[in-house]
Design a protein that fits this description.
single chain, alpha+beta, four-stranded antiparallel β-sheet, 26% helix
Length: 201
């Protein structure tokens, strides 16, 4: 048993894969209850968070001797989920190409502008190419900070086009105005809920 300090770019999927666990084994462990309550999303952690890593359990299976037996190792791919917007409206049916760890994935956004693809839990970087417009975007996978952290809120606001001259209160005020919320420049619960809904996480 050991505690692991989260580094930038880590998520439960990558931490679990590195140690030979399924993500739910670590995320749902009783010793990680407080972390789970605080972060909510297993793939949005913050550098410095502490994740409890349990010991591996030895599983015994009764079987006949002098015979060959096959065992299948369970694994769980991570899911990349992105939403494309233009002027706050979904970019539906956009053809795209994802390059993740040298693997090329192709598809089209759905009617709400979403992309969903299964990827390796250890993937760190990638590239998104929009084939109809020749747009290209680098992806830093696992690097999104929690929405409760100022850096996490600002990352989401910037992605949605609210920069506030690089200052969080200004970006929040602009976002609040666009969503017809009370304009305070503070990350209150109503703003947090609206930002999470607009960003998707």
């Amino acid at each position: 048993m050991a505690d692991y300090e989260v580094q930038q770019g880590d998520c439960i999927s990558s931490i679990s894969a590195e140690r030979g666990f399924l993500p739910e084994t670590i995320w749902n462990h009783a010793n990680n209850f407080a972390l789970k309550q605080k972060r909510k999303d297993p793939n949005v952690l913050f550098a410095g968070d502490i994740v409890f890593i349990p010991d591996k359990e030895i599983k015994e299976i009764a079987s006949a001797t002098d015979q060959r037996h096959k065992f299948k190792l369970k694994s769980a791919p991570a899911k990349l989920k992105l939403r494309l917007l233009r002027d706050d409206k979904p970019r539906a049916d956009e053809k795209y190409q994802l390059i993740i760890d040298g693997r090329v994935l192709e598809g089209s956004t759905d009617g709400d502008g979403w992309i969903e693809q299964a990827i390796s839990p250890n993937a760190q970087t990638g590239t998104l190419r929009l084939l109809d417009t020749d747009e290209e975007y680098p992806l830093n996978l696992g690097h999104l900070n929690p929405i409760d952290e100022p850096t996490g809120a600002m990352e989401r606001l910037k992605s949605l086009g609210f920069t506030g001259d690089g200052e969080l209160p200004g970006a929040l005020a602009a976002f609040q105005k666009s969503k017809k919320l009370a304009v305070s420049g503070n990350l209150d619960q109503a703003t947090k809920d609206a930002l999470k809904a607009a960003y998707g996480s």
